[in-house]
Write a structure and sequence with these properties.
The protein is built from eight helices and 19 strands. The chain is α+β, with helices and mostly antiparallel strands. The mean pLDDT is 93.
Length: 385
């Protein structure tokens, strides 16, 4: 597609959500430009790395489980289009915790959605996964058989390639300096000025700064999450062929811990805390998160004794959280040709194919089939908007 003076849709931010949004807009026949501030590939946002967990299990948030039905189909479609493996179905083990009913809620949600799962008693959990260690009164576990992991970096490149194959334009290494609302929107980058009928903002950790510049005060918080890899004591114990992705609510204080079997690095299991210190995305490394590592060491020593209790590799990622940990998928309240996708709260990657479709439909004037009441900007108090 030749570069045009005015695009139907400009998408700012080429993470997984922005890339899928641009792909859906281009697939709908719209002239589309996808703009990314960093040269691709990069590790400064929320979509890099080798894996992300994927699941249908969502406790009491059944609306995500419903969306995942379509998301799984779309991931399979991308595998077929790209002719490569992007999804590994290991199952996802949701481990109970004394004093909360998350396991019951998860089982009910999966059953209602007709998603295959197995309920494990405390005894069955110990017998099936002897490499784990939990007290005998945690309420068992649920194995979401649909779950597993997405090969994140490979998936991101795959959807960007499909977008390009459709003739979509991708401009990386161009930081957006200003967005000027109007009937025709201007997007000024460090390199040039773009114009479009509609703009979709998928700017990840920079959402708060960008939204403030267009008159929105949205309660977003960016957190630096430490991604740690731990060596298995006996080779093959945590192979993805026999050990699932796992998670436990309220595992360290009120926060979730999750793990991914050996897939990214030989003999290394990813175990992370779904929380971290608040940071500015432009100075993300200027923060002390040693307490996260120490808390994870205690957790691994107590509950995953099959791993050496110190991390071998340490990486990082940024979450952009809303107060309720639900996404923002909405039009700007006074500039309807600006669409916002933000606040994915550390659980957005798996649903990116569906979310991208929703955002592209909002941009081009179509009505998404999903219930968007959970994702509206106006759910926050007036003091925030």
């Amino acid at each position: 597609m030749a570069e045009e003076t005015v695009y139907d849709v400009i998408v700012v931010g080429a993470g997984i959500v922005g890339s899928y949004t641009a792909y859906h807009a281009r697939r709908a026949g719209k002239s589309t430009c996808l703009i990314e501030q960093f040269p691709l590939p990069h590790t400064r946002g929320s979509s890099h790395g080798q894996s992300r967990t994927i699941r249908s299990a969502y406790g009491d948030k059944e609306y995500y489980t419903k969306m995942m039905t379509k998301a799984f189909q779309m991931w399979r479609q991308l595998e077929e289009l790209s002719n490569q493996t992007l999804f590994k179905q290991t199952g996802l083990l949701c481990i109970g915790q004394k004093g909360i009913n998350y396991i019951d809620e998860t089982a009910m949600c999966l059953q209602k959605n007709k998603t295959p799962f197995r309920r494990l008693s405390d005894e069955k959990l110990r017998d099936t996964y002897p490499m784990l260690s939990f007290s005998p009164d945690i309420g068992g576990a649920v194995l979401d058989l649909s779950g597993g992991l997405i090969l994140a970096g490979r998936a991101l490149t795959a959807i960007q390639n499909q977008y390009r194959n459709l003739g979509g334009l991708l401009k990386d290494g161009e930081k957006m300096m200003e967005i000027i609302p109007g009937k025709m929107i201007s997007v000024k980058t460090e390199a040039r000025l773009y114009r479009a009928k509609r703009v979709v903002l998928c700017v990840g950790p920079w959402a708060s700064k960008v939204l403030t510049s267009i008159g929105l005060d949205v309660p977003l918080q960016t957190q630096r999450v430490k991604v740690c890899y731990w060596k298995e004591k006996v080779k093959g114990t945590f192979s993805s062929r026999q050990f699932p992705v796992f998670s436990q609510m309220n595992a360290i204080g009120p926060y979730l811990v999750y793990g991914v079997p050996c897939e990214e690095y030989p003999e290394l299991v990813k175990v992370c805390l779904h929380y971290g210190p608040t940071v500015d995305p432009d100075s993300r490394d200027d923060v002390d998160d040693l307490w996260v590592e120490k808390a994870l060491q205690r957790y691994v020593r107590e509950h995953v004794p099959g791993l050496e209790p110190w991390p071998v590799i340490k990486e990082s990622c940024i979450y952009t959280n809303t107060p309720d940990e639900d996404y923002i998928l909405d039009r700007h309240p006074s500039c309807s040709n600006i669409v916002i996708g933000a606040g994915f709260s550390g659980h957005g990657f798996k649903l990116a194919p569906v979310v991208g479709e929703i955002l592209s439909k909002l941009a081009i004037g179509l009505t998404p089939e999903e219930d968007l009441s959970y994702f509206r900007l106006n759910r926050f108090t007036k003091s925030h908007l």
